[in-house]
Specification:
Length: 165
């Protein structure tokens, strides 16, 4: 994307604070927020959940915010929507493999410049449980609003039961 075809916006005061913290603690997960939701339903369909996540991404510009550095200053822009294939793992009842993967996902920092500031994964634990992982950067989300507003909005589409919400 070139600067001539993209509309850039200044960061909010709060975003600038997060940005400067990221600059001080580069390569860490200091700005990362991660949540998991256990889906307890034998009818839960990972492809429908992937579709629901994509509808959220398509309809919510804030999820698609990206950061660019222009003349040394951070600016934000909205990336065009494109369908995202969501990582899917099947652990066939092996919770230890799930814990290892979760630890790996937690420890991977985001690349801040011109990159997605979100990550999703769907994990089949066994025939009656799946886990939905939602990892976002604090520059674009407080994550709780992302979960409750977006996923609940489209929960009928995926026909899933979300425990705890």
């Amino acid at each position: 994307m070139t600067t001539s075809e993209t509309e850039y916006y200044p960061l909010t005061h709060q975003q600038k604070e997060i940005w400067y913290t990221e600059k001080v603690y580069q390569g860490t997960t200091i700005g990362t927020i991660l949540s998991t939701m256990w889906l307890n339903d034998t009818n839960a369909d990972s492809k429908l959940l992937e579709k629901a996540i994509n509808i959220c991404l398509e309809k919510n510009d804030a999820c698609r915010l990206r950061i660019a550095e222009i003349e040394g200053e951070p600016k934000q822009y909205v990336a065009k929507y494109c369908y995202q294939e969501i990582d899917y793992y099947d652990f066939n009842g092996n919770l230890e493999d799930y814990r290892i993967l979760l630890k790996k996902i937690k420890s991977e920092p985001f690349s801040i410049i011109d990159s997605n500031l979100y990550y999703f994964a769907i994990i089949k634990i066994n025939n009656s449980e799946m886990v939905y992982i939602n990892k976002g950067h604090h520059l674009i989300s407080d994550n709780w609003s992302m979960i409750t507003k977006n996923i609940n909005k489209h929960r009928d589409l995926s026909k899933i039961k979300i425990s705890g919400i």
